[in-house]
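Exercise 7b. Backbone tokens:
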């Protein structure tokens, strides 16, 4: 089984999710998305795999950068939101795990079990 995680090693939920995956005997491909930001295309695809109605649902809206970048503007297109997340990857909700064409946000970490 192929599993990928957009991982931030400084985030406790991301570390817990990675440990949960590895405890299941799976060695995921680890993408340190802060160092290698996903493209806008990958962010749009992730939103679809997560089953979200908008990229906005995967944005960490309580971060100061969210307001600074005016991402609360309801007129922003999905592409504009994805471009913003590519430019400011710290705003991506974390971690996101991908497997079998689906994705899950590891908040709580057990959320990812449904796609493993």
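Sequence design result:
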């Amino acid at each position: 089984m192929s599993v990928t995680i957009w991982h931030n090693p400084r985030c406790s939920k991301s570390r817990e999710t990675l440990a949960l995956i590895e405890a299941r005997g799976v060695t995921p491909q680890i993408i340190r998305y802060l160092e290698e930001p996903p493209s806008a295309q990958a962010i749009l695809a992730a939103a679809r795999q997560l089953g979200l109605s908008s990229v906005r649902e995967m944005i960490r809206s309580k971060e100061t950068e969210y307001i600074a970048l005016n991402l609360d503007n309801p007129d922003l297109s999905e592409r504009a939101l994805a471009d913003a997340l590519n430019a400011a990857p710290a705003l991506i909700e974390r971690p996101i795990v991908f497997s079998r064409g689906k994705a899950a946000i590891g908040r709580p970490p057990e959320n990812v079990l449904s796609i493993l």
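Instructor comment: Helices lie at 12-23, 40-50, 64-68, 78-87. The domain at 3-115 is CATH 3.40.30.10 (Glutaredoxin).
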